[in-house]
Amino acid sequence: MKRKLAAGNWKMNGTTPSLAELQALVSVHKTPSVDILICPPATLIAQAAGISADSTIMIGAQDCHAAASGAHTGDISAPMLADAGAGAVILGHSERRENHNETSDLVAKKALAAHAASLIALVCLGETLAQREGAQTLDVIADQLAGSLPDGTTGANTVIAYEPIWAIGTGLTPSLEQIGEVHAFIRSRLDDRFGAGAAQDFRLLYGGSVKPENAAEIFATSNVDGALVGGASLKADDFSPIINALES
Hints:
8-stranded parallel barrel, 8 strands, 16% strand
């Protein structure tokens, strides 16, 4: 039976003193009933992996290059991330799609690279506010889902996060009905592509202004297997209650 997942994306935040927050999570959540993933900036991955080595908390990265090595100044490959101690990598986050012009085809290539390095690919999908208001949400999600997942994708090597772009860091969240609709749609499309019943092996996370105050009701929504949390994952005092809500 798949375990639920609380994933924290630190984004471009954190220096060595910030690892005290990870140490606090390790101390508090010694035997969690859900999986916990923290994705710090690349500069902290190796140190974070050392801190969490004797715990159940997994360390992940926030991006990788599609190639395993080569003349790509400033980029980091999936094998390098694995070597540093990462067990997963976020791919296709809207901030990468928008700020770095990443296409779904590129995300799929990166997912293949992640799988080859034995990393779990955490693939993000989401619509803009204009697309939501234009009743295009499901079309956008269908296109991103089809284009971002390579052949060979399974529930064991891939997690999918629905993050409506207009909800990230804004304090706004979709209604529970809207979240449930998109997650059910994703589950259906996964069955269509990978075979009847395959979708039940995938963990579907919700992301976008998840906070201790709204976590419980989001987690009670059908087809939500956890959360990808941004700002609220930077402090243990904020992220820990979200983990607790998922456990309960």
